[in-house]
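Design request, tokens follow.
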């Protein structure tokens, strides 16, 4: 592949969302919540459940409207957990969040759990005569589970996983708009950073500049901490930037994303500093070819509207087939869904479900090659697919062909 030496300008990408956009998206969520709850209740009934306990903060926002910032989630405890039956719903909170819950989730009763969340949940279930309640054993501590069981007289606690996540995998138009807006924030930030990527600049300095660029131009938060990894450090799929300075002839790998209106983006670009060797360009082309194979598979499926969507496992197989043999081919998943969480359903990997991918949805496609202590190359884009409407759209617009900077 012949690398380019010109970078796009920030003005080539969509502008930051306006206040009106944010208000419109909030109104769309408010209008959609009754139908979201109705769909959730239909599935619960089909599974023989007359109550659900949802513990993800993404579910609290999606179904109830209660918003937790990224820095708040780790310290919120059980606040934001949802209890849902066929005709009632409540949001659990401690005293720090009662006012917020009443303000943001008026359709849900506010249930202050005090010092014993298990007893509060169990008592609520018992008072409503719940017979079978679904909850996720990976998210509810064993001690809390036992306390619920002891308090919810006669109720069977049923292990269920991903009830909210499975529903959130299918994206509404206003959700896709926000993911696209978050992608544009990231696109613009990298375009503005490009001229500053020079030998001698540290990974940490570039990571901070990229973070600042996103925050000052439309991001309400980061989707996750920025990775800026040079040379051999780029072979760490989830490494952290340090004080290592860039040198000519190596790569700099950026993995980063913005959050807009609660929804997130995720993009990886691997750039060459001043020059690129033929051997490194061969590796880059191998990764590029692998990603293109899955995009082509999706394109063929979308163009034939009667064809079933491929599974996440099939996509991973297609990319590995196209990349062929060789050292360092990625051992992580090919991709993941994204929305209110950076990593959510669906999954694209060797261990993914063989069921067809949901539609409409948004997910990443991110193959890579990692040669320890030498080089890492990953290309990651977010893809919006809608089989019914015949849509295949790459939401990350920053060029993915090889680029020389500095």
């Amino acid at each position: 592949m012949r690398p380019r030496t010109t970078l796009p300008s920030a003005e080539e990408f969509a502008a930051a969302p306006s206040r009106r956009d944010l208000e419109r998206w909030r109104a769309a969520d408010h209008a959609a919540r009754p139908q979201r709850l109705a769909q959730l209740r239909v599935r619960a009934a089909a599974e023989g459940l007359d109550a659900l306990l949802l513990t993800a903060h993404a579910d609290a926002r999606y179904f109830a409207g209660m918003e937790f910032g990224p820095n708040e989630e780790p310290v919120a405890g059980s606040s934001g957990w949802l209890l849902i039956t066929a005709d009632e719903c409540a949001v659990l909170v401690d005293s720090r969040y009662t006012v917020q819950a009443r303000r943001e989730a008026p359709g849900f009763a506010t249930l202050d759990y005090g010092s014993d969340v298990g007893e509060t949940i169990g008592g609520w279930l018992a008072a409503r005569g719940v017979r079978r309640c679904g909850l996720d054993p990976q998210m509810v501590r064993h001690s809390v589970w036992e306390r619920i069981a002891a308090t919810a007289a006669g109720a069977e606690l049923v292990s269920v996983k991903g009830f909210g996540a499975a529903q959130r995998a299918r994206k509404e138009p206003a959700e896709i708009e926000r993911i696209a807006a978050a992608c544009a924030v990231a696109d613009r930030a990298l375009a503005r950073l490009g001229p500053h990527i020079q030998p001698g600049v540290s990974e940490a300095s570039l990571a901070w500049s990229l973070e600042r660029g996103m925050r000052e131009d439309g991001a309400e938060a980061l989707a996750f901490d920025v990775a800026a990894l040079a040379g051999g450090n780029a072979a760490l799929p989830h490494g952290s930037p340090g004080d290592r300075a860039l040198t000519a002839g190596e790569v700099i790998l950026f993995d980063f994303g913005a959050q807009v209106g609660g929804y997130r983006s995720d993009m990886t670009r691997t750039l060459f500093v001043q020059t690129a060797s033929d051997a490194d360009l061969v590796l880059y082309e191998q990764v590029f070819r692998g990603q293109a194979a899955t995009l082509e598979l999706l394109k063929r499926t979308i163009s034939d509207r009667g064809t079933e969507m491929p599974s996440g496992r099939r996509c991973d197989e297609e990319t590995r087939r196209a990349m062929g043999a060789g050292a360092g081919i990625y051992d992580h998943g090919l991709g993941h869904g994204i929305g209110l969480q950076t990593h959510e359903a669906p999954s694209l990997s060797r261990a993914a479900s063989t069921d067809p991918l949901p539609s409409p949805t948004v997910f990443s496609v991110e193959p890579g090659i990692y040669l320890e202590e030498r080089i890492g190359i990953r290309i990651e884009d977010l893809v919006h697919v809608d089989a019914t409407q015949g849509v295949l759209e790459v939401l990350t617009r920053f060029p993915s062909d090889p680029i020389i900077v500095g």
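Comment from the thread starter after seeing the answer: thanks! The chain has a mean pLDDT of 96.
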